[in-house]
Amino acid sequence: MTSRERMDAALRGERPDQVPIFLRDLTLGLDVCDYTTPEVCAGPNGYDADKSARCVVETQRLLGHDCVVGGIHDLGLDVERFGGRVEFPQRGIPFVARPAFASVDDIPDASDLAAAPSGRLPGLARSYRSVREQLGSQVAIAANVEGPVTKAGLLRGLDALLSDMMRDPPAARAAVELAVELCCEHVRVLLDAGADFVFVAAASDGPAAIRPEHYLEYTIPGLSRIVAAAREREAPVVFHPHGPFTDTRFQHLVDAAVETGIVGFQFGEDTDFAVARQCWGSRVCVLGGVDIPSVLLPGPPERIREVTRNVLAQARIGGGFVLMPSCSVHRGFPLAHLQAMIDAARARG
Amino acid sequence: MSDRSTLTAALEAAVEAGDEAGAASAASRLLEFGAAPTIVTGALSRAMGRLGEQFHRLDIFVPDLLIAADAFEAAMVVVEPALRNSPRKSKGTIVIGVVEGDIHTLGKNLVRVMLAADGFEVYDLGRDVKVAGFVDAALERSADIIAMSSLMTTTMDRMRDVVGLLVSRGLRDRVRVMVGGAPVTQAYADEIGADGYGEDASDAVAAANRLMVMWQRPGADHS
Q1: Best of B65, B66, B109, B124 to disrupt the A interface by mutation (most A CBs within 10 Å)?
Q2: What backbone phi and psi angles, to 5 degrees, belong to A89?
Q3: Which of A141, A151, A217, A341 minimizes the number of CB atoms within 10 Å of its CB?
Q4: Cα distance from B163 to chain A (closest Cα, Å)?
Q5: Which CATH architecture has domain B3-85?
Q6: Cross-chain residue pair B62–A210, CB shorter than 8 Å
């Protein structure tokens, strides 16, 4: 099987010849190619699609993972479009220095999205196209798209958005509505640029950040619309919110996500991976497995190999499974640690 | 129940409900009734302590803590002039901030409020604080503790740099270091030589208290 076929089979709930590996390496390739962050993300001509694609391709050739994100991804793509400010540290990862919507009055109507500047999104799409051309049909490409509350939090500022949810729900709804429209726009643009599936990265969509009732009110309807937008292009969706979802008090939140039609759920930190496989492994592909803060980052490699072998032993239960770090990996991450995880998985098969 | 105890209960309830106006009003009325400012801060501390425990158990969530923190600060604005006239005993002085390259302030803000509610004197350095900024501020404020937060794996090693700078400036025995943030673990805190680690806001308060009990800085006087 090719890497792409392996990933496709796992997302369909099947068991491929080997467990597919997805690093969700959003800025790691900057180190592999020794580029500064601004020269790729914020060069004189804006987003440098050629350098971004080179980062992705060289990293995949170095480590041999089965699935890539099609470009160097930063969280400020839409923030700048609406007047926010993003900083690009030379060797760090871009961050939102000033959210776009300091005041509730700054939030435009979602129907006005067409009038907004496109920002760096076209450059990112060119990177995806270039990655598809260079990697051909062998490797799977994920469209990395933020989740509803996560995107809204980047635009409004997370603490302001969470306060809005408690004190000014119409303002919170306006921010999330706009965010979902942006998410759907990214889905269409990145799938058209060659991505195989959509990965909804949703750090602030879950009980690590919001109330369960807010998740049901804001996240789930937004996720449904993202799934619908992907379905228009016959693409599956994987969802990755943060929170202790295997805690019995929050398991209904996973069920609600599954009911939107997602095909995969990535469990991050603070979850019991065995419980996740047992509860949902027959309904969706389960992604994840190796915890970043406690295992993958500190290492050492032998411990990473041991943990990976244990995760893979558990993964024999249930259907589709994709091995991943518990969240995204970025520049500065020890490549040898990722290589140890991949080697252990490949040795196990 | 006396008026004062009714008002104290009302103040605690207002903070727990995130009712800024209610908290400010109850604090103001308590002072009008002749309550010592420490009665007000004691009530605020109890309310924030209970919220911290509920948050630790995930019975409440970040938005609940955020609005409670706003209510706490609204009450503190009322009581601070009175506190200046009859200063309360501080548990210790802490400079707190988010490390360089990181602007995720939400967790740090919650920890700041919880520490202040617990009786620490807290100086907030904000976000994207340079390594030397922590050390200089600690010196300037004669701080007992430097508290640092990072939400990103890419920036968390600035905490290690702060510890290193304290060592290279010969200041390591004069100030304690505590760390926290999503990717930070006890093992990481141990590895970089930090003295304390807080898994969440209430845990950070417990860690700060442990540090103050376990360590009395040479020449420090918190009596």
Answers
A1: B66
A2: -60, 145
A3: A217
A4: 18
A5: Orthogonal Bundle (1.10)
A6: yes
Q: Which residue of A has its CA nearest to B180?
A: A293
Task: Tell me how many domains chain A contains.
Answer: 1
Domain of A90 in residue numbering reads as 3-348
Rounded distance between C-alpha atoms, residue A263 and residue A244, angstroms? 20
What whole-number distance in Å separates Cα of residue A203 and Cα of residue A209?
8
User: Scanning every residue of chain A, which has its alpha carbon at the shortest distance from the alpha carbon of B62?
Assistant: A209
Contact check, Cβ <8 Å, A163/B64: no
Chain A: residue whose CA lies nearest to B64: A166
Which residues neighbour B140 within 8 Å (Cβ) at sequence distance 6 or greater? none
CB pairs under 8 A between A and B: 78
- Beta carbons of A293 and B106 less than 8 Å apart: no
Structure tokens at A341: 């995880």
- Minimal Cα distance from A158: which residue of B? B106
Domain boundaries of chain B, sorted by first residue: 3-85, 93-214
Which of chain B's residues have a Cβ under 8 Å away from the Cβ of A247? 58
Cβ-defined contact of A293 to B185 (cutoff 8 Å): yes
CATH of domain B93-214: 3.40.50.280
pTM equals 0.89
Q: What is the predicted ipTM?
A: 0.88
Query: Contact, A187 vs A224, CB < 8 A?
Result: no
| CATH number of the structural domain spanning residue A220 | 3.20.20.210
pLDDT in tens, A115-142: 888 889 999 999 999 999 999 999 999 9
Rounded to 5 degrees, what are φ and ψ at A323? -80, 130
pLDDT digits (tens, 9 = 90+) for B48-78: 889 988 988 899 998 998 899 899 989 989 9
Question: Is the peptide bond preceding residue A94 cis, with omega within 30 degrees of 0?
Answer: no
